[in-house]
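Re: beginner question about structure tokens

> Can someone show what the tokenized structure looks like for a real chain? I only ever see the sequence side.

Sure, here's an example I had lying around. Input first:
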Amino acid sequence: MDRLHDALRIEDYALIGNTITGALVGTNGSIDWFCPPRIDAAACFAALLGSHDNGHWRIAPRTEYHVEQRYRPDTLVLETEFTTHTGRVRLTDFMAMNSHETEEHCHLIRIVEGLDGTVDMEMALVVRFYYGSMVPWMRRIGAVRLAVAGPDSLYFASSVPIQGKDHTTVARFTVGAGQKEMFHLSYQPTHRTHYTAPDPMAALQDTEDWWRKWAARSSYEGPWRDLVMRSLITLKALTCRPTGAIAAALTTSLPEELGGVRNWDYRYCWVRDATFTLWALLASGYTGEATAWREWLLRAVAGNPADLQIVYGVAGERWIGEREIPWLSGYEGARPVRVGNAAADQFQLDVYGELMDSLHLARSAGLHPEPHVWDIQRAIMAFLEDHWQQADDGIWEVRGGRAHFTHSKVMAWVAFDRAVKDATRYRLKAPIKRWTMIRDQIHADVCAKGFSARKNSFTQCYGKEAVDASLLMMALVGFLPPTDARILGTVAAIESELMIDGLVMRYRTEEACDGLPGNEGIFLPCSFWLVDNWLLQGRRDEAEALFKRLAGLCNPVGLLSEEYDPRTQRLIGNFPQAFTHVALVNSAHNLAGNGPAAQRARNRTHP
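And the corresponding structure tokens:
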């Protein structure tokens, strides 16, 4: 039996959103994370990273209950069904999809419907702006309550009587079969003084129709349709509709190790995700979303190539400075809670390769950019010509100092390879001969310095023996054929050294010198990369078995986080994680025979 105030596991949450921001709804009926009006704004419900006093909105039975949670098919409308000893009730949660394309409004709507018998319910609304630290001014405006703090305001209305108690808005009510009670919480900036309340039932119908119409555009026809569609809807929910950006996750500071310090803010956009995301969207029939993502990418990276960042805000903001929020106790005590991300200041060679690869893919798919984009790409290549030999911070954003990471050099090779291909295929002005020479030079450099003959494997860094799951990308980007003896040896080394409970770690923290104490869980995208490698090597049965194992890690509503802890058998890390869901979609397409793995691997040129 579930209890009202039990702490929730990460997998006990579900996502609702309006493609500008989102919220997490627990199986206990509590919304514990909500950042209006935009996904990276300061939370007004931060109980996820603290206590209920840091903000939450709970609607649930007053007595013990059994709970089931599901989405309405092909939508982001969530249903939580509570069964008590006296009856059964359904809580429907959603964020209204409306005509607002800006960040000025959002409507969070909750509908309680009696199904059988009668159920005694209670509601508690605790609003705390700026990550749970600011108690707002509350006042009545007719039947509506208004909460105000600085630039932010929330309007709350309920069909049941409410009262204020200890800076909390509370209600107790009973629901019988066929009875419906409505609640809505609407955000708008304080300088907007005119408020129009939504019609909850009309908004529900409009929102359900909107999501089903969007889902109907999917072209995926493989055996994992429900799982793939849920991942695509999740990616759409993590999109900032006005800008086209796709955030890495809804949350900040959900730990990579329970109780640990590896807690980061993922409400931003990583350039390294670009090609993976484009493949997932294009392969699934979402050309419009792929184009919007590509356009965001071009706007974000505009400027001096030396200033290219690995991560940006969802509108392309460059300054996302990292700071700690000391008043939040952290998820299950994992501290510090961080806002912003210092990885924006790192130097990573791989992002140049991802950028060039994504623009190459976009051109190949017919998403031709404006002519001036090639000038930007030429400037990027000119910078890379002089800097590819430098040490960098690597794909995993380690904080233990720079090194010559093999994956980084491989992605520098990708940049030159794709630049040569585009210049040749589309007759673009470029120093093709020089770029070809550098491409071949990088390839030889990696094969000479990044490969250990003793281990018969490529290694994480030049001159080291440790392996790294990012090496699985070597075949996927076409650096070497997937059945090359060196790739086979690398995959075997990863299987031997990085697999725990049948899943793949990024690296062993004790070997990587990543500058942080403690350990981390299984980084889930890496296991999907192994699925793709096995497919390319003809090991289909093993690939299907691993994919099924990964699919089994999804929570009951089909969501995955960044990592998995095999010891406690729990999801960990930020949630839901776009990179994980992108990897799932791509692997599902690969298993169906129409995915990016074979296409991308064939796109190779090497000595």
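Each token stands for a local structural state, so reading them left to right follows the chain. The longest strand covers residues 106-126.
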